[in-house]
Design brief:
The complex is a heterodimer. By secondary structure, chain A is of the alpha/beta class. Chain A has five helices and six strands. Chain A has one domain: Rossmann fold. The longest helix of chain B has 14 residues. Chain B is of the alpha/beta class. Chain B is 32% helix and 27% strand. Chain B starts with a strand and ends in a 5-residue tail after the last helix. The chains are: A alpha/beta, B alpha/beta.
């Protein structure tokens, strides 16, 4: 499967390595060259320098051939905009975006985007640990 | 009309001033407290709310559910898109207008539901290009985001239109003569009006016909 990852931060680089190790074709897009260092030496996918909300950058990153995309830059609005471009303009079948703000995450889920909100996820996991009965 | 202005930079501030002068109801949103303080001193008639315009709760405080128009004018295109989408989808605002800071995003805005993406960069560029390329023609007013403009051209002595009736001219496409200024006189042109050298012609014309109009009236094509 060809997968596009927008944003090569901690989550993006980790996901890229996991998918790449699983034998998938991975392209990582980030606007900072230095972010690609996080991918390490074992990563054998492609890296493209560019902007996740720019259609030309996305094309260079092979969005038209991607079967799935994960959008994990550090900006909620950038992720929401980029994910919509990838899904609605380029028609990539599976698109997931990370959104920190739980309210925006809930609303955009209603609008039909796949959203993972780290904030809500971590908070509820923490709650489970705190409330766990020994 | 009830307008919510998100982003009180240069454009937001001037828009708020115009709208208030025309007695519209205006709510101004900005995330910077010092900007908000300045806005409330400048516009006592407007409600100013300090907060992130992309936060649905802040938009609710701005009574967005009752607004007729949202104008998203921050310096950040991602923010402007999200503000418009929240306004339309969540608060059912009928008209969403956004400033496009990076011209490459204009098409994306339109594709993702912004009713009127105003591409500030390309509008300013087209105005400047017009001024550079044809200095003998001056723009008095622009319409439809620069696509049409009202211009003033002086009839050159060498122009083929001198001593001709307007009905005899073949005007460029999309061009209408509005008035002729001759000395102290203002003439509303009719078919039989005769043009003279030195007449200042006021015309409505499109961007594409501008040069042709200048070639006809001005000195270029003598």
């Amino acid at each position: 499967m060809q997968a596009l990852i927008v944003g090569c931060g901690r989550v993006g680089s980790e996901l890229a390595q996991i998918l790449s190790a699983g034998g998938h074709n991975v392209v990582v897009l980030d606007k900072n060259e230095s972010s690609f260092k996080r991918l390490g030496d074992s990563f054998n996918g492609a890296t493209i320098l560019g902007n996740g909300i720019d259609t030309e950058s996305l094309k260079l990153a092979g969005v038209e051939r991607a079967a799935a995309a994960a959008v994990v830059t550090n900006g909620d609005n950038t992720n929401l905009m980029s994910a919509q471009i990838i899904k609605k303009i380029f028609g990539v079948p599976r698109v997931v975006a990370r959104v920190y703000d739980p309210r925006r995450a809930a609303l955009y889920r209603q609008f039909g985007l796949e959203i993972i909100s780290g904030t809500t996820l971590v908070a509820s996991l923490m709650r489970d640990v705190i409330m766990e009965k020994k | 009309m009830f307008v919510v202005v998100a982003g009180a930079g240069n454009v937001g501030r001037q828009l708020a001033r115009n709208l208030l002068r025309e007695k519209h109801t205006v709510i101004i949103l900005d995330r910077q407290p010092d900007v908000c303080g300045r806005m409330s001193r400048l516009f006592p008639a407007a409600l100013v709310i300090c907060g992130d315009s992309c936060d649905p709760q802040v938009l609710e405080q701005a009574y967005l559910d009752r607004a007729d128009v949202i104008a998203a004018l921050t310096g950040d295109d991602e923010d402007n898109l999200i503000i418009c989408q929240l306004a339309k989808e969540r608060f059912k605002v009928k008209r969403a207008v956004a400033k496009v800071n990076d011209s490459r995003n204009a098409k994306t805005f339109a594709a993702l539901g912004v009713d009127v993406p105003v591409d500030s960069g390309s509008i300013i560029t087209s105005l400047i290009t017009q001024e550079i390329s044809t200095s003998e023609i001056s723009t008095l007013f622009t319409l439809k985001r620069g696509r049409m403009s009202i211009v003033q051209v002086t009839v050159a002595p060498s122009s083929p239109v001198v001593s001709k009736k307007i009905m005899e001219l073949s005007l460029p496409q999309d061009t209408v003569l509005i008035s002729i200024l001759r000395g102290e006189e203002v003439i509303i042109p009719r078919g039989f009006t005769v043009l003279q050298r030195g007449d200042d012609v006021i015309a409505l014309t499109s961007g594409g016909s501008r040069q042709a109009l200048l070639d006809l009236l001005g000195a270029k094509n003598a």
